[in-house]
Amino acid sequence: MDGNIGHRSYVKPSQVGAKPTGPMLGAEITGVDLREPLSEADVAAIRAALLKYKVLFFHDQDISHEDHVRFGRYFGDLEGHPVTAHVPGAPEVLFIEAADGMKITDKVLPIARPANKWHTDVTFREIPSLGGILRMRKRPPTGGDTIFADTAAIYADLPPDVQEKIETLDAEHDIIRSYGYRVTPEKAAQLRKDYPLVTHPVVRRHPETGERHLFVNHVFTSRILGLPEDEATALLAYLLDRVKAPEYQMRFRWNDHAIAFWDNRATQHYGVLDYWPHERVVERVTVMDTERPRR
Ligand code: OGA
Ligand code: MN
Question: What is the number of the ligand 1 atom nearest to the C-alpha of 270?
Answer without folding.
Answer: 3
